[in-house]
C-alpha cells in the first residue's frame, strides 16, 4: 500500500492558481492537474489501473478489502 499522502498537500493558493488558469486560458480542455499531489496520484492511476487504485483507496480509507 502507498504511504498516506496527507503530508504532501498542496497549498490552497497553488490550487487556486491552476483553477484560475483553467478558467481563463481559452483552451477546449476539461481536465487539469491541480498540484503535485494530483499529478502523483494521476501517475499512480495510469501505472496501476483504476481497479487497483480503487482497491487501495478502499483499504486505506474505508478498511475494506477485495471489493469488486
What does it look like?
- This protein is 57% helix and 0% strand.
- The protein is an all-alpha fold and 68 residues long.
- Helix 2 (36-48) packs across helix 3 (50-62).
- It starts with 11 loop residues before the first helix and ends in a 6-residue tail after the last helix.
Supply the number of helical segments.
3
Helix content percent band: 55-70%
Sheet/helix structural class:
mainly alpha
Which descriptor suits the 3D outline?
Answer: elongated
How many runs of DSSP E, i.e. beta strands? 0
What is the strand content?
under 5%
The domain count comes to 1
Instruction: Specify Rg, calculated over alpha carbons.
Output: 15 Å
Unreliable stretches, pLDDT < 50, 5 or more residues? none
Average pLDDT rating? 86
The separation of the N and C termini measures: 18 Å
User: H/E series, N to C?
Assistant: HHH
The biggest beta sheet is recorded as: none
Amino acid at each position: 500500500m502507498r504511504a498516506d499522502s496527507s503530508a504532501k498537500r498542496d497549498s490552497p493558493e497553488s490550487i487556486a492558481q491552476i483553477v484560475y488558469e483553467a478558467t481563463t486560458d481559452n483552451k477546449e480542455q476539461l481536465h487539469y492537474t491541480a498540484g503535485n499531489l494530483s499529478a502523483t496520484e494521476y501517475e499512480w492511476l495510469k501505472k496501476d489501473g483504476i481497479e487497483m487504485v480503487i482497491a487501495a483507496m478502499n483499504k486505506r480509507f474505508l478498511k475494506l478489502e477485495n471489493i469488486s
